[in-house]
Amino acid sequence: MEAAQALGVDISTLCAGKGTCGKCKIRVMGEATTRLERTESEMKHLSEDEVQAGIRLACLTRLGESTVIYVPLRSRVGSQRLQTEGLDVPVEPSPLVRKYRVTMPKPQLQDSRADEDRLLAALTEQYGLPELGVDFDVYRNLPVTLREADWEATAVVWGNRIIALEPGDTSDRCYGLAVDVGTTKIAGFLLDLRSGAVVGVAARMNPQIPFGEDIMSRVTRVMMGGWDAVNELQGAVISGVNEIIEECCEKADVKPEEIYELNFVGNTVMQLLFLGVWPRHVAFAPYTPAGRRGVDVKASTLGLRANPGANAHHLPVIGGFVGADNVAVVLASKMLESDEMVMAIDVGTNTEIDLGNKDLVMADSCASGPAFEGMEIKFGMRATTGSIEKISIDPDTFDVYYRTIGDASPIGICGSGLVDAPAEFLKTGLIMPRGNFVTEMTERTDRLRKGLNGWEFVIAWKKETEIDTDIVITLGDIRELQKAKGAIHTGADLLMQRMGVTDESISKLVVAGAFGNYIDPENARIIGMYPEIPLERIEFAGNLAGTGARMTLMSAEMREYAEEISSKVKYYELAADKDFQKEYINSLYFPHADLTKYPETVELLRRFGQKI
Amino acid sequence: MEAAQALGVDISTLCAGKGTCGKCKIRVMGEATTRLERTESEMKHLSEDEVQAGIRLACLTRLGESTVIYVPLRSRVGSQRLQTEGLDVPVEPSPLVRKYRVTMPKPQLQDSRADEDRLLAALTEQYGLPELGVDFDVYRNLPVTLREADWEATAVVWGNRIIALEPGDTSDRCYGLAVDVGTTKIAGFLLDLRSGAVVGVAARMNPQIPFGEDIMSRVTRVMMGGWDAVNELQGAVISGVNEIIEECCEKADVKPEEIYELNFVGNTVMQLLFLGVWPRHVAFAPYTPAGRRGVDVKASTLGLRANPGANAHHLPVIGGFVGADNVAVVLASKMLESDEMVMAIDVGTNTEIDLGNKDLVMADSCASGPAFEGMEIKFGMRATTGSIEKISIDPDTFDVYYRTIGDASPIGICGSGLVDAPAEFLKTGLIMPRGNFVTEMTERTDRLRKGLNGWEFVIAWKKETEIDTDIVITLGDIRELQKAKGAIHTGADLLMQRMGVTDESISKLVVAGAFGNYIDPENARIIGMYPEIPLERIEFAGNLAGTGARMTLMSAEMREYAEEISSKVKYYELAADKDFQKEYINSLYFPHADLTKYPETVELLRRFGQKI
Fold first, then answer.
1. A144-188: per-residue pLDDT in tens?
2. Cα(B112)–Cα(A289) distance, rounded to whole angstroms?
3. Nearest-by-Cβ selection for B107 from A115, A278, A288
4. Is residue A4 helix, strand or coil?
5. Which residues of B touch A278 (CB under 8 A)?
6. Quick check: A33 pLDDT over 60?
């Protein structure tokens, strides 16, 4: 641990080297190591396989003279980027918008071609472009612009149309915005369209939240309020995006007028409300979207702050409950190109699950609720500075180790902390698989107590916090988390059953969603958020929908590919599955009512002394 | 004449059979005719060739038992239609807008395709249409429209996009509007896009006239007033078109929302002001248009009253002074398909002249002024009810025979009457080739007199008129007509000289423009409006620009052809011709300073006893 810190390698730890949190797992390679004996405490955190593989806790290992150490990804702190931005999946830049600096001969009596012909001919001569269309607004100003520019201008070309014309050479300023419009959160990324570099990031709570926290309540709002409500909800999300544009632009010293393309992803109801489409029909059986295909519309038509000629694209959706955000996840996970079986889970207020390979990908969706986004949880919050993003509990002393984002005094708990809490409770015997607190444990720790609203466990004492009150996890919180993880598990499990896929045959599980900096894959598995897939096959991708949004902003090919995904991925209607209810109830248990599905977890819990 | 009237053949006459006006020329075929001897009066109107060819005046000819009579087109009254509508040149209907009635299976859980996919699939299945685009406004309302329509609707398809979607079956209602936006007059034609039938016609003075009667004064107005003035002028012409739409729709019992496409022609400055483009640059050397190509823009963007999804197309232009109206004339005259040399003259406030055949067509333009549209002429008026459209003067008594449109009491003189007046003055010795009145003629007729503003000739006495005043032609009027016809002649003559084309080699002269019902080709030639081309080669086409506008409304092929014409026709810059000034001055004479150019006219004038 000391060597890693000296070398600048970011190994996770919560207990500050006490050997109790088990976060700092490393693999000791080769033989020439002076090992400390494995302690009982260390052994609790290690499975038989891990011991065989040479896994140890870094804080309990002493190095020899030439020891080689491998630090697995899940033992690294990770970065704030992942949460908002998601994985970086590079694409060859081929944006739909390009700038061409062009010089034209001045008109004279011997060459009195129309301004438009002159411009187009110069673009053909200088860049080999075919005869382009010209947006009407550009056309209207053509004579003035070209003369002000003294016949040297920069044409902004989108597809086969000139969408803007700027005096002089502005070809080094060409930006685009990728936006993930979530039910709860909107995340925007300002990209330099020439390089693909992210030059600004900003996020906001979705300003539609006051109209209803989830999709159904917003649709209900529209049904009561009519088109006025549609316009109000559309106006809310557009204003949120405009704030993001402003913030990104300010950060990157870019003018909104230098944004020529905007690319949006979101679930299907978010798509409808973003575009201002009457959304009722997608919310009731048979849940038909208005349109599946991607939509192009002038950004100005939607009221977005960007170049007047800028195009706004909304990525295609798959079905009523599997939206463009999921198309982006399938795209960024490359599962439709994979020979082997891949599962992707995009955790959000609605959670979408995809499973398949190049032959077939199926998708379903479950209303997991916003618990993992920190909503409906007493001290829940989104992952920002001061939120507790990692929790570990000493199984002997019940001391709580935690880490906050930005190492600030805690003010609440974000998604990754909310995954850790029930897992740690389970490991330390504070709760039982049904999710009830083991009240006898009050004898061993005063953190477990009966509060005003029932049983609760103190994560951070008042004196440690920024908010002058104890930060606790209540029994109610645990119930919310059970419902959320239960819904997700049900969606994953039924999709596997219907496709005849077993845990073993899944070569990769991509977990996406904005939980916090870095979710603990083992803890998520301990609570049974997803099937018991080997930890090394689990990959956390953060905001993968955002990744896909950026990829399809940067690449015309990727955008075409999104259309292909939209038509290829088969939607599986979970609500129509006869086993749904039964499966959901079983999935409410930590990790599951049927423990034979989680042998490794059972083994781990037993190592921790739990009798299950 | 009597036989013709009995048979319903509309032979022209102004003198009511007195044998003096010479309008009722017919050809007597075969031998079995009892002829009256030709009178001196008849012989005045007949050339040697005509006598040889058996031409006589109908009113002075008695029929035998089985005489066959041929009535040449120019001796027929013609119809009001020609003036506003122009010749009818049929095209195979292939409009860009089509309607498709479509029924869709209702959504259900087993078929929850997106509304858009459902609609597109039905169009493909039922009509073999490729995957269409959907206008954003249609898209926004798709879920509501389709459900209101109970899955039976009519899709309005423009090009490869759905621009409107209507509940039920509206496929029998599909209209388009073709509009000729002249500097002085706007003429609109409402067409049934399925058949091509004209179902409504309306015309208005261009509401831009108060901003300046000619192009230059309107451009000056814009230069003084800036963009506000552009918007004002654009608003004026749009409001005029909207009035025309309303009138046409009322006449034909069509709703403006049933108009799905509008097709516009006009000169280049009219094009710019119609589209709201800054027009200064086209009015000054080197006279560059903003765009040469045709322009498509949503009608609603321009503020036109039509279906919200309707497209407005402006036909391409050729150059700064040869506009879309001329493209329409070249198209309707089919000169670019002709083996032989064709000349087209489109008389208006600006007159455009085209000359050529399938190998090459050149065009020029002259500022002929609005005299032949009745402007700047004391009693000039546009060709409507009560306007004198034909004038004939008895060479002995100087009695004036005239015909008004609608046979109403006269209120003024329209273009065709204004062509007749100087020609009749010349034939009867009332004016000399320079255009001055022969004041000695006051001894023979009290119609010639000195009025308040100089010499004038009374066409209709106060007691005959509706306006309680003598209708006269003043010397000032004659000067205006000289300038107008002189400009036209110069444009035609110089184009012929530069292309090496002689009078004889022109196989057809198409004269277009809204003069009145039927212009007298001989009188127009007598005053030297155009070169001395044999009368049988002269064809009056009325509003041929309007004809072309209708053809390119009805046919996608014709619209493509218009683009071809726009790029193929070569503009000849008259103002840059070194002989322009000299040629113009010579052309001010009736018919011309160089009488060797007009041998037939000289012969005719001599037959009438004029010593020139």
1. 999 999 999 999 999 999 999 999 999 999 999 999 999 888 999
2. 8
3. A288
4. helix
5. 140-141, 143-144
6. no
Q: What SS3 class is residue B297?
A: strand
Q: Mapped to the 3 state alphabet, what secondary structure does A267-313 carry?
A: CHHHHHHHHCCCCHHHHCCCCCCCCCCCEEEEHHHHCCCCCCCCEEE
How big is the A-B interface in CB pairs under 8 Å?
Answer: 133
- Equal fold, B2-76 vs B97-167: yes
Looking at the complex, report in whole angstroms how far the Cα of residue B56 sits from the nearest Cα belonging to chain A.
Answer: 52
Please judge whether B112 and A319 are an interchain contact, meaning their C-beta atoms are less than 8 angstroms apart. yes
pLDDT at B78 over 70: no
Q: Is the Cβ pair A286, B141 closer than 8 Å?
A: no
Nearest CA in chain B to A299: B136
Render pLDDT for B211-226 as a digit per residue (tens, 0 to 9).
887 888 899 989 999 9
The C-alpha angle A423, A424, A425, rounded to 5 degrees, equals: 90
CATH topology of domain A2-76: Ubiquitin-like (UB roll) (3.10.20)
B191 closest CA partner among B252, B257, B240, B274? B252
β-pair type (A387-393, A360-366):
unpaired
Is residue A254 within 8 Å of residue A188, measured between CB atoms? no
**Confidence check: pLDDT of A80 > 70:** no
Residues of B in contact with A320 (CB under 8 A): 112
Show me where the domains of chain B are located.
2-76, 97-167, 176-314, 333-370+482-594, 373-477
- What fold is seen in the domain B333-370+482-594? Nucleotidyltransferase; domain 5 (3.30.420)
Across the interface, of A115, A276, A317, the residue whose CB is closest to B291 is A115
pTM: 0.85
Tokens found for residue B307: 């279906």
**Paired tokens of A288:** 């038909």
The chain A residue lying nearest B120, using CA atoms, is A291
| Beta carbons of B286 and A107 less than 8 Å apart | yes
The CATH fold of domain A97-167: Ubiquitin-like (UB roll) (3.10.20)
